[in-house]
Amino acid sequence: MQYKEFSNGVSIPMLGFGTYKIDNADVPAAIQGALDAGYRHFDCAHIYGNEAAIGEAFKKANVDREDLFITSKVWNADQGYDKTLKAFEQTLTDLQMDYLDLYLIHWPNEDNFDLTLDTWKAMETLYEQGKVKAIGVSNFSEDQLKKVFAMCKVKPMVNQIERHPYKVQEELGKFDEDNGIVNEGYSPIGHGHLILEDETINKIAEKHHKTAAQVVLRWHIDTGFVVFPKSSKVARVKENFDIFDFNLNEDEIKAISALDQDKHLNY
Predict the structure, then answer these.
(1) Binding region
(2) From 48, 103, 166, 186, the catalytic residue
(3) If you ran DSSP here, which 8-state letter would residue 151 be given?
(4) What's the number of domains the chain is made of?
(5) What are 167-205's pLDDT values in tens digits?
(6) CA nearest 71: which of 85, 88, 83, 56?
(7) What is the full DSSP assignment across 167-204?
(8) Residues in domain NADP-dependent oxidoreductase (predicted)?
């Protein structure tokens, strides 16, 4: 495993397991399968509707809490200072945990960004109380981050954004890095079929005796992004974890990055 360090010295595994759209009935097998494959970083969110099932799965999995890295996110309907604190406590209850490793604002409030700034104040309170080891944001633009910088006591440590070879996010990624923010990429293989059939990626995969998905995940990590692919298939879960025995060279990284179309595949 490779790790990325936040501005406060906390380390995060660069490869995690995503829990988006995992049905509650499938959660126990998915969590145990990921643990068996070697995952210890799990990306969750209240809006996914499965945090209680995930908490129960971890309780039964016989894994030490300190060996896990758990992320969750406050949803749009829970923004605001008091509502964020309440939502956080609900997430802790659901996950059956007494702290989180990382808590994020899931989306900025485009219509009332002052509400999002109040949410950030609540995030800072949770951090100061030691209930979360790191705090950050998701889907924030450069301008929105600057508004947070102007009022915050603690700068966001993470920006989680859509990122894959068809949406490389070079400018925003560099801005984050320049400001001490760790980049995380969701939808890292862009829902598979479009990107995994790409000729450039498959040629690189053939050279390394790896799959297209493994090459794309390696590209993320080699370019400094934390990622958390999701799959309900045991073989794919294991395959996604098997990316630490090779690296891409500079030309291969450039070739994949050159596929950028600034294309949203998530909405």
Answers:
(1) 106
(2) 48
(3) T
(4) 1
(5) 999 999 999 999 999 999 999 998 767 899 999 999 999
(6) 88
(7) B--HHHHHHHHHTTPEEEEESTTTTSHHHHT-HHHHHH
(8) 15-260
